[in-house]
Structure formats: C-alpha cells, structure tokens
C-alpha cells in the first residue's frame, strides 16, 4: 500500500501535468485564433492543411455557435444590400429585374461539408479526392442556414440566383440531389467545371463563368463564397461577401 507521502506526490505530479497541458492548450488558442483571422483576411495563403496544434480550436469553432454567427452576420450584410438594390430599382416589379443576378458558391457556402471534415480532423488531414467524392455522391451535406435564408429571400425578391462551383460536371446529378435535399429549389443555373476547365485556377475559372453570365445580359449584383478565389478576378459583381472557412484553401 502506498504511503500517505507517496499518494501526495502522485497527486501533485498528476495535477502539475494536467495544469501544464491545460496551459499549453490555452496558450495555443490565441495563436490559432490569429492564424484563422489571417486566413480569413487572405494574409495566410497557399496553405495545405490546418496546423495540427489548431485542430481542437478549428473543431470547436466549426462545431459551435461562432461559425454560424459569423456566417449569419456576413449574410445579413448581403441581405441588406439585396434589399437596397431592390428598393432603389425602377424595374423591381418588371420581368427585366430578373437580369439582376447573384452568384453563390456551393461547398462551405450553400452546403456545409462540416460532417465530412469532422471525420477527417477538420482539415488537419490532407485532402483526399477519392474520399471527398464519395461524400459528394451521398448528397447528404446540410444547407448553411444563413445561405438558404439568403437564397430564398433573393428568389422571392425576383433576383436570378446562379450556383457556381468548382465541382466537375460528373457531379451534377449528386449536386442537384444534395441542393434539393438541403431545401434549395428554383435556382436559375448550376455551373460546374467542364473538361476544358481542367487545370484552370479557381480565380480564372470562376471569373470566366461570371463573364459569360454578363455576356448573356445579366448584371451581377452580389457574389458569395468561402474562398477569396470565389470573389477575386474579374466580373466579381457589385459587392462580394466572404464566408468563413478555416478548414481548407483553394487558390
């Protein structure tokens, strides 16, 4: 049987170890917050995985209220802008108003892949194309609530809404099924990568597709995405709205 002194030493050592681990975790929190902040404002670029030390921080952010609140605030600004455009338009009640368009990204914008990334360490694991494509085929990603609300409001106001995604054409059926399962319906168009778009950067690919909409006579009022590559380049729209995504980076 351990002596009282030995028991006391065990308690002290274990307590010190727990305190040290807790201090290390709390020390990492500000560093990971700063990393995420600089990711969101596009200071940190071309990163491939979430720093392992930030796994618990990113998991907590994506699974908690903060992610939803940040997304809701960003899209509240988009809603306010949509109403401003609608209320100031002389053609708001005419069919011509439908040529006012909004462009929405899909992954981490209209649909949330957080359930998938929760199984893959919230971006600490390197991206696996085979596994992610299998997830897409399930058509099970939930809607980001704030985006679904924006989508329905835009549609009710008479804007045309286009989905512009980096997914390839062979994912069309699964993507349509997922959008419908998540509550989206009545979009004007769904634009996916074609074979000729293979190897084209996201910025150039999405810029070209937006320019094609303009060539059809659409005026891009708003553009919503989780990556700066969704919102950069040319034909970006009157205003862009950036949603948070600390799980992966698309150039």
Automatic annotation (TrEMBL):
It comes from the Eukaryota. CDD domains: HAD_VSP (cd07535). The keyword Glycoprotein applies. Residues 1-24 form the signal peptide. Keywords: Glycoprotein, Signal, Storage protein. One of its GO terms (molecular function) is nutrient reservoir activity. It holds the Pfam family Acid_phosphat_B. InterPro entries: Acid_phosphat_B-like, Acid_phosphatase_pln, APS1/VSP, HAD-like_sf, HAD_sf. The keyword Glycoprotein applies. Belongs to the APS1/VSP family. May function as somatic storage protein during early seedling development. NCBIfam families: plant-AP. This is Acid phosphatase. It comes from Adiantum capillus-veneris.
């Amino acid at each position: 049987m351990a002596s009282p002194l030995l028991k006391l030493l065990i308690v002290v050592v274990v307590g010190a170890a727990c305190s040290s681990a807790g201090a290390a975790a709390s020390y990492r929190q500000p560093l990971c917050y700063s990393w995420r902040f600089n990711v969101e404002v596009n200071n940190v670029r071309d990163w491939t995985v979430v720093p392992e030390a930030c796994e618990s921080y990113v998991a907590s952010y994506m699974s908690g209220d903060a992610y939803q609140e940040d997304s809701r605030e960003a899209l509240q600004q988009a809603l306010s802008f949509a109403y401003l455009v609608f209320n100031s338009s002389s053609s708001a009640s005419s069919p011509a108003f439908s040529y006012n368009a909004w462009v929405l990204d899909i992954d981490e914008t209209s649909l949330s892949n957080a359930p998938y990334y929760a199984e893959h360490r919230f971006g600490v694991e390197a991206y696996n194309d085979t596994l992610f494509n299998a997830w897409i085929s399930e058509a099970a990603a939930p809607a980001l609530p704030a985006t679904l609300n924006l989508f329905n409001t835009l549609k009710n106001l008479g804007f045309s809404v286009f989905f512009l995604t980096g997914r390839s054409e062979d994912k069309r059926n699964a993507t349509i099924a997922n959008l419908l399962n998540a509550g989206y319906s009545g979009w004007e168009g769904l634009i996916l990568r074609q074979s000729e778009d293979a190897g084209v950067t996201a910025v150039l690919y999405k810029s070209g597709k937006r320019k094609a909409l303009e060539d059809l006579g659409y005026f891009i009022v708003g553009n919503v995405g989780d990556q700066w590559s969704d919102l950069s380049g040319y034909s970006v729209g009157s205003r862009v709205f950036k949603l948070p995504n600390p799980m992966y980076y698309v150039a």
